[in-house]
Design goal:
mainly alpha; 351 residues
């Protein structure tokens, strides 16, 4: 295969899927890191040397003393033992190492594919953008961590949302580009209304992921753990004196917004799936729409269980992992709609 001579490459597709799987793993480990309060245990950002953890007692004590200097230790974990510190350190270290691993697994094969002219030309610049986004994600990760090293005992919710949001963008883009590499180039022939609907569904899923990140960052899942009401009320009290920041930091408001968008998404996904199946929307997309709707319903039920148990570690991590899976299904659904063939749309609704 030569660049420009083919529109597809199965080897490139498999590489992109592997990268997507690694990003998924990083999202899951990131969830564990957040829920165990491990994210601030490493107080420096050393992209190269930071890969090597402390190797002896003296090095561990140096890292521990640096952690003792930040507000989280002083106000939350005062008196923590070295062994307890090591427990949170390893989660954050693993999270950062997976990030570096993704960079290597992406960059090296990419260079090989380009040098040996294996990658379709139209995917080269997409991959360059993905590589740049990966580098940006590392910077944003440190920007997020730095928000909790001086005045806060945790990271700023809006920075967590940006960090997780970019991870989801990269994850979705890897899946989309992998599908493009696997199947080759094909123009969009779907009716515009269905393309708009599938795009809107993906956008709302992504928005809900961001709102979930705000809930996580504000620790809003630890309060108002009843359902369907919030401490017996439809709308919780909100500290409006914070102004626009209330939409980012107020625990009651961010949880309320997350709930309301979830209800709207459930209705939207259900109606979309019924119509996609009924009208034989496109080859494979009817099934993908049903799978997406089922996943969203499952995610909603999991979210309710997570909330009512005040976000235990297992349920919290599963909820974040499921968010990535739902986003992946929404990405697949849109891709299938855009790749549909005209003949699929000639038939009427199923009876």
């Amino acid at each position: 295969m030569r660049i420009g001579e083919t529109t597809q490459s199965r080897s490139v597709a498999i590489w992109l899927y592997v990268c997507a799987a690694l990003v998924f793993a990083m999202v899951v480990v990131g969830g564990v890191t957040r829920l165990t309060g491990s994210g601030l245990s490493i107080t420096e950002w050393q992209p190269i040397m930071g890969t090597i953890p402390p190797l002896n007692h003296e090095q561990w004590m140096v890292a521990f003393e640096k952690y003792k200097a930040i507000p989280q230790y002083q106000q939350v974990n005062a008196g923590m033992s070295l062994q307890e510190f090591q427990g949170i350190f390893w989660w954050e270290w693993l999270h950062r190492v997976i990030g570096r691993l993704i960079g290597v697994v992406f960059a090296l094969p990419f260079l090989i594919f380009v040098v040996f002219k294996i990658m379709p030309r139209r995917l080269v610049w997409r991959s360059v953008v993905l590589l740049g986004l990966g580098g940006l994600q590392g910077l944003i990760g440190w920007w997020m961590v730095s928000s909790g090293l001086s005045e806060r005992v945790d990271v700023a919710p809006e920075r967590l949302a940006v960090h997780l949001g970019l991870a989801f963008i990269i994850f979705s883009a890897l899946i989309w580009t992998g599908l493009e590499a696997w199947s080759g180039q094909q123009f969009n022939r779907a009716p515009r209304s269905w393309t708009i609907g599938a795009t809107a569904l993906l956008v709302v899923v992504f928005l809900q992921c961001l709102l979930g990140a705000l809930v996580a960052g504000a620790k809003a899942g630890m309060v108002y753990t009843d359902w369907p009401l919030m401490n017996g009320a439809v709308f919780p009290p909100v500290e409006w004196s914070a102004g626009g920041l209330a939409f980012l930091h107020d625990q009651g408001l961010v949880q309320f917004n997350h709930r309301m968008v979830a209800y709207g998404l459930l209705l939207f996904a259900t109606l979309y799936a019924v119509n996609a199946w009924r009208w034989r929307l496109a080859e494979g997309s009817g099934a993908s729409a049903l799978a997406l709707a089922a996943a969203i319903w499952g995610q909603a039920l999991l979210g309710i269980a997570t909330l009512m148990h005040a976000v235990p570690l297992t349920l919290g991590v599963l909820h974040q992992a499921m968010a990535a899976l739902v986003l992946g299904l929404a990405t697949l659904n849109l891709w299938l709609v855009r790749r549909s063939r005209p003949r699929i749309f000639k038939s009427g609704p199923r009876t």
